[in-house]
Amino acid sequence: MEMEHQAMNVKKLSETTVALLADHKGLFAMDESISTCNKRFSDAGIPKTEENRRTYRELIIKTTGLNESISGIILYHETIRQSDEAGIPFIKTIEDAGIVPGIKVDIGTEDLAGFLGEKITEGLDGLRYRLKEYARMGARFAKWRAAILIGQEIPSRNCIISNANALARYAALCQECSLVPIVEPEVMMLGSHSSKKCYQVTREVLSTVFEQLYLQNITLESMILKPNMILPGQDSGEKNTAEKIAENTIKCLMECVPPAVPGIAFLSGGQSPREASNRLNAMNQISASNLPWKLTFSFGRALQQTALAIWEGDDLNKVSAQQEIYHRVKCNRAANIGLYSDEMERRD
Fold first, then answer.
1. What global pTM score does this model have?
2. What pLDDT is stored for residue 4 in this prediction?
3. Which residue in 184, 186, 318, 324 is the catalytic one?
4. What pLDDT digit, counting tens, does each position of 146-167 carry?
5. 294 catalytic, yes or no?
C-alpha cells in the first residue's frame, strides 16, 4: 500500500507540474497578505475592508480569457475561503476555468534573532496539517517566500542557510502532501547595491537552496523555482539593458539550477509591468530552446498594479480593470515565447 501511495503521489505531483508549465502560460500571484493588500488599497484610495478585498479578487479571477495566459493562481488563506457574489467558491471558479489553484503558506518574515537587519520567514509550525487542509480544499501547489536583503555586511551566511533550510523543509512537506512546491528565494531590489553584487548574492543563495533541497530528498522534477532576476538595487542609479539583465540572469541560473528542475517562474519584485515583461522577453529570446528548464512568470504587482489604479474600488471601472489584467497577462505570455514588443503596449 505504501508503494502504491508513493506512486500515486509522484503521478499527481507530475501532473500538476506539467499543467503549471503548459502552453507558455504563467502564474498569477494573488497571494498578498491582508496587511499588504490593505496598504495597496490605501495608496489607491480604496477603503480597507474584507468585502473590498473579496470584490477585487473576484474581479481578477473572473477576468474573461484569463486562462489563455494563466496556468495557475496563487491564493492567500483569506482568499481560498472566499466566494463570489453568487456564493460560488473562488476555488471552484478557478478550477472551472481550467486554471490550477495554489496557496501561499508562509506567514511572513520576522527579524532574524541575533542578526541585525536580516529576516527569516516563519510558518513551519503546524505546516503539515495546514497543507493537508489546503489540499482537501482543492489546492494543488503551494508557495513559500524567503526575503534576502543586501546591505553593508549582509546577507550573512547564517541568514542564507536558515532561509534555505526553511524553504527545503517546506518543500518536503508539500511533496509529502502531493502539493507542488514553488520555492521562492528572493534577493530583494531594496538598496543601492550593484548588479554585480546581486549576482554574487543570488548565486550563493541559489546554490545553498539546492544544497538544502538535496538534503531534504526533494524530487526536483516536481518543483518550480521562483527567483529574482539579476538587477541592481533600486537606489543604485545603475542602468542596464533588458538584454544585459537577461544575460546575467541566465548565466547565474546555469551555474546554480540543476537541469532536473522543470521550470523557473520569475518574480517581479517591484519592477514596473513593462520592465518585467521586457526582461522576461529578452531571456526567452536569448535562450530559445537551449535551456533545460522553461522560463515563465509568477508576477503579482506587475500584473495588478495598473488594474488596481483603474478600478479604484468602483464597480463602474470593473470591466476596464479586467481588460487591463487581460492585456498584461497576454503581454507576459508573449514574453514567454520571446514575442513581446513595445507595439503590444499601444492601446489604440
1. 0.95
2. 53
3. 184
4. 999 999 999 999 999 999 999 9
5. no
- Look at residue 289 in the predicted model and tell me its pLDDT: 62
Kindly tell me the sign of the dihedral angle through the C-alpha atoms of 96, 328, 30, 337.
positive
C-alpha span between 83 and 88 (Å, rounded) = 5
Residue 70: phi and psi, rounded to 5, are -115, 125
Residue 2 has pLDDT above 60, yes or no: no
Q: So where are the chain's domains?
A: 2-339
Element at 141 (helix H, strand E) = strand 141-148
The active-site residue out of 119, 143, 226, 318 is 226
Residue 295 CA to residue 126 CA, distance in Å, equals 32
By CB atoms closer than 10 A (0-12, 13-18, 19+), residue 193 is: buried
Alpha-carbon separation of residue 136 from 92, 106, 139, 178 (angstroms): 13, 18, 7, 11
Pairing relationship of beta strands 180-187 and 141-148 according to DSSP bridges = parallel
Domain 2-339 class, CATH top level: alpha beta
Query: What whole-number distance in Å separates Cα of residue 218 and Cα of residue 10?
Result: 12
Among this protein's residues, is 226 annotated catalytic? yes
* CA-based nearest residue to 190, from 228, 225, 157: 228
User: Which residue do the cell numbers 551566511 mark?
Assistant: 157
Q: Are 10 and 219 in contact (CB under 8 A)?
A: yes
Q: Is 297 left (phi over 0), alpha (psi -120 to 50) or beta?
A: beta
